[in-house]
Design a protein that fits this description.
Layout: H1 23-29, E1 35-36, H2 38-44, E2 50-54, E3 61-62, E4 67-68, E5 82-84, H3 93-104, E6 109-113, H4 120-129, E7 132-136, H5 142-161, H6 169-183, E8 186-190, E9 195-198, H7 208-216, H8 225-234, E10 239-241, E11 249-257, E12 260-269, H9 276-298, H10 301-316, H11 321-327, E13 333-343, H12 350-367, E14 372-376, E15 379-384, H13 389-409, E16 414-418, E17 422-424, H14 428-444, E18 451-453, H15 458-472, H16 479-491, H17 495-504, H18 509-515, H19 520-534, H20 541-556
Parallel strand pairs: 4-5, 5-6, 6-7, 16-18
Antiparallel strand pairs: 1-3, 2-7, 8-9, 8-12, 10-11, 11-12, 13-15, 13-16, 13-17, 14-15
């Protein structure tokens, strides 16, 4: 479609036909469309390649389709609209003028490609002009970015008018279209390996794996799954997957919104003859599938992101926890418990972490009504309501299943901790704090296995908190313990370990010597020497108590 002179390019013009002379007048009189906050939009399009460099002063963005920059036309648009700066080079002085013009025309945001250039000057201009400046990854095509923004904005507009999300019917129609275009039975999956849609064209061969996946709407677990999915998500194009055993070959591709993985498409290659034309067709279909999947998902994404932010604030605690709990639909009284899931960061790349979040969220929310999940940093927190003592066993069993499944299917080693039970919403932040401490113990190797609960390791948690207190108040530490640890570090001796073990074992020389693999005479000599070196009198109960505690806490500092 060719735009009329004097207008910015846009796919659809609302209202009566406009000429160059009256565009500005019509725009200023037009009804302001619904809007969305920039943070909300960025959350919906998380990891799509968009980064914010300046938020500007405009509190809301218009839910109209993005406008495309045209160097031959004046910069004009709806208030709060997004302008895609196609062809603008950050190093070109004219780009600075376009940012100013966009701000003056009422645009809420402008999107540029950084192209490995320093854009601090443009950021300053945007801040002063009051327009949000976004940069998109150089690898993301403008056409795809336009489609992603249009889908997110139009879905947000529909969501603001109706609470019902878009159904999955379009995905089934898309699966049939892909099956006809590529030439094989097709399934569309999310990151959790759940079958969202499948084709139903006659005379297309399938195998038992596909049949089971359709019946259960879940890809059956097989030992080769992890390697196959890894090859699909590591590739930017279609991948041929060799069938194992009785399974037929597949042609598969990851579905992405920019850089963010959304799922995958799998086409049965019954005869092994899907060629480069089929690959190209599947790659084009993946772009279309991204729009469908983003649209279907993002109808609930804004509400989900809002719940996540509320849960994040609830876990942090504060004076407004009662109000936050009401907005989440939680009762004032519990009991509540927080479970924390932390992956081994040496194994968890971005894709694995996203799939892990989906796995944990799906399993927790389906396990128990009223469960809420949120990712903070690299830790996933699940808040369980009505977590009475009788329910803790099933929550622990769920945690252990997730440890096993994440290791088998992602594969990522997972550490899981359960915090202390909270009687009211005010105690939820404490439950999260205890879960974090247990994770710290698991990561340090001070607790065996990959799962532990605050109830099981209560004494160790107390020592960890005391260690933090001693770290902040060094005068609480026994001077003799500090000197002993420093002496051992310089001299290569084991006086601190010897005394700590001796006190741990109630001053039983025989047990201490056995625990340290020493002769009792050697132990007695060490005890005499440390008394002489550090002025220790074990006949003073109070001093001995502080000394013993300090020796334990020194290990945790």
């Amino acid at each position: 479609m060719t735009s009329a002179p004097g207008t910015n390019l846009r796919p659809l013009s609302c209202g009566p036909a406009q000429t160059a002379g009256n565009v500005h007048e019509v725009v200023t009189l037009a009804k302001t469309p619904d809007s969305i906050g920039l943070p909300d939009l960025l959350q919906v399009l998380e990891r799509s390649g968009l980064l914010v460099r300046s938020y500007g002063n405009a509190p809301k963005l218009s839910l109209t389709s993005p406008a495309l920059y045209d160097p031959l036309a004046p910069v004009e648009g709806f208030r709060g609209e997004i302008l895609l700066g196609i062809g603008l080079h950050p190093a070109n002085p004219e780009t600075n003028d376009v940012v100013l013009s966009a701000a003056g025309a009422g645009f809420g945001a402008i999107v540029l490609k950084q192209l490995s250039q320093d854009i601090d000057g443009l950021v300053t201009t945007a801040v002063e002009a009051g327009i949000a400046l976004l940069v998109v990854d150089d690898a993301v095509g403008w056409r795809q970015l336009y489609a992603l923004l249009e889908s997110a904005l139009s879905t947000a507009a529909e969501t603001s008018r109706s609470p019902s999300p878009l159904g999955a019917g379009d995905l089934f129609a898309l699966a049939n279209a892909i099956a006809a275009m590529v030439g094989g039975a097709t399934t569309i999956e999310n990151l959790q390996e759940q079958v969202l849609a499948y084709s139903a064209l006659p005379d297309q061969p399938i195998d038992e794996d596909r049949r089971n996946g359709i019946l259960g709407r879940q890809v059956p677990y097989l030992p080769e799954n992890a390697e196959q999915y890894a090859s699909v998500f590591q590739s930017r194009g279609a991948v041929h997957i060799k069938g194992i055993g009785t399974a037929l070959d597949r042609l598969a591709i990851a579905v992405r919104a920019g850089n963010q993985p959304l799922g995958s498409i799998w086409v049965v290659d019954a005869d092994g003859n899907l060629d480069s034309d089929a690959e190209q067709a599947l790659e084009r279909a993946a772009d279309i599938a991204a729009l469908h999947m983003l649209r279907a998902r993002s109808a609930n994404d804004l509400a989900r992101q809002q719940r996540a932010e509320l849960l994040r604030r609830l876990l942090e605690g504060g004076d407004d926890v009662q109000l936050i709990a009401e907005q989440l639909g939680l009762k004032p009284s519990g009991p509540f418990v927080v479970v924390a899931f932390q992956p081994d960061l040496s194994q968890a790349d971005e894709i694995s972490l996203l799939r892990l979040v989906d796995l944990v969220t799906t399993q927790c929310e389906s396990h128990r009504q009223g469960a809420h999940c949120v990712l903070i940093g690299t830790t996933i927190y699940a808040l369980f309501a009505d977590a009475a003592a009788s329910a803790l066993g099933s929550i622990e069993a769920l945690a252990r299943r997730l440890i096993e499944r994440s290791a088998a299917t992602l594969p990522v080693q997972l550490r899981v901790s359960t915090g202390s039970a909270a009687a009211t919403v005010a105690g939820i932040s404490r439950s999260r704090h205890d879960a974090d401490l247990v994770l710290l113990m698991l990561a340090s190797g001070r607790s065996d296995g990959a799962y532990a609960s605050a109830q099981e390791v209560r004494s160790r948690l107390t020592l960890l908190e005391l260690a933090a207190q001693f770290r902040n108040t060094p005068r609480l530490m026994s001077p003799a313990a500090t000197r002993m640890v420093e002496f051992d570090a310089k001299s290569g001796t084991d006086y601190a370990k010897t005394l700590r073990t001796y006190l741990d074992l109630s001053r039983d020389s025989a047990k201490t010597a056995a625990a340290l693999s020493l002769h009792q005479n050697t132990l007695r000599y060490r005890l005499r020497r440390l008394s002489e070196l550090f002025g220790i009198d074990l006949g003073q109960p109070e001093d001995t108590l502080v000394l013993w505690l300090s020796l334990h806490l020194q290990e945790l500092l």
